[in-house]
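Bench notes, bay 3.
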Amino acid sequence: MRLPPLAALSAGLLAAFVGFASSFSVVLQGLVGVGATAEQAASGIMALSVGMGVCGLLVSLRTRMPISIAWSTPGAALLAGAGLPEGGFTSAVGAFLFAATLVILAGLVKPIGRTIAAIPLSLANAMLAGILLPLCLAPVKAVAAAPLEGLAIVAVWFLVGRWNRVLAVPSAAVATFLLIYLLHAGPSGGAPIVPDPILVIPHWSLSAIVGLGLPLFLITMASQNIPGLAVLKVNGYAPEPGPLFTATGIFSLFCAPFGGHAVNLAAITAAICAGDEAGPDRARRWWAGIVSGLAYIVFGLAAGWATAFAAQAPVLIQAMAGLALVGAFTGALTGTIAEARDREAAILCFLVTASGTAFFGISAPFWGLTVGGIALVATRLRA
């Protein structure tokens, strides 16, 4: 039996490290933002990491393609800015289950997947940009609250980014954890490394389903699953979309009762596993998907320690989350104004979403998409 290519192994490890380190803080902030306790957040992060690891391993093995699976970073950003839903975290878990079911249906029923793909990119980007804006302001607030520490994290992110953009956020994450370790309360106060899985019985709230579940589904599809397929296609792989959507939806369904919000195709780290970094032999790059899956499982099993450690300096973790989202915000804002005829409707969607204002208990992203959609239809009818 031939040994796995060394380049594919290193690419898989790099993809897992970048994926986990660059967005761990965002996912933590998202789960806490919708009412999760520290223990529930650790359980959710473990469920997501293990779920996306097993899912990535299985689909890569099944398709013999470097399929990289990740948690929904834009979805976590949505949770962080949406506020506590009516009914608390149990209502959020109900929304997670609803979103996972829609992803499964999008994989099984082709017209649903085509409908999601037909949502104008300007509106999808505007909603995402509106969600990300308040979170991307966190580094500025961190510098105001803790100048030396905040500036040190920002400096590492900026300087490493001039050399290697992919490693900028992971390097800032390492700097953040070092600062917490050296200047704050120490490792993690005796917290267990492997968190206890906490089963959350969902509460079905219409406002949470409409305000969280539906936007989570739309963002996951538009910002993760569809771009993830595009990255694979650019690198010479053309898997059938339906089974991949269904697989990620099923794993999301399993993760949700333990606090995990969404598992989906990776977009940024997919380029590491499917690109030239994984070796010249395209037919053997699938090993990168296997290795990244195994690494995610290992990272997930340490979620208890990482969550307790991060809780010792929430301001720095929020700053780290904001830096991790700058690239996504830049791309979303560019996409918002890219199409001239849709620009006014997209800006309205962005403004309503960024306001963070909830009506009837339903969070701002739903209303942003609604207002933007009405304005877009009106503009096109007038044209």
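Next record in the batch:
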Amino acid sequence: MDELAKEAGITVRTLRFYRERGLIQPPRREGRIAWYDDHHLARLRTITGLLERGHTLNGIADLATTFDSGRDVAEVLGLGEPTEETPVRLSPEQLADYFSDEATAENLAAALDLGYLATDGDEIVHISRRLLEASSELVREGVPLSAVLSSGRLVREHAEALADLFVRVMNTHAEGTEPDRMRSLAHAVVDAELSMALDRRLRGEDDTGTTEK
């Protein structure tokens, strides 16, 4: 315990307090000897980093519980990683830098449930750099992260329906099309339709072109 506290830059008294609060896992015991490892040190450094960013110990305890119960990368990514999206590895402190005080246990749990986040040892993995950066930009624009995540769930449902529709059409009428070609065509159609739909909404029109009152 003395060695771990020294390595983490905290007092033994603080370390004992963290253990009592359940902020770190119990050590591995061999007889009367308690062994701590790099995972304990990483968690202590995470606690220090989150405290420096303004998080409370209660909030950190909630985050730790949620983090420890999260789905791991293999479960989220399945048999293979995304072909276009690039996963991003983050420490809990880096995640807090992206979302500041919006990085709460509730939002972390929602992101884990949605499959945006996964755990890999002491790291958090976001499944898509583009989604991570867009989400953080929305938060900086004033949109609560909870709203971003709930909207993301709806977008996911519509995206799945669009993917099913496009694959069904291509398999029916253009079977054998290369996956990359199919992906490119689908992007072109969906991007164009979304762009036009946004134009209509920004002009205050509905789907028929009639101005909304």
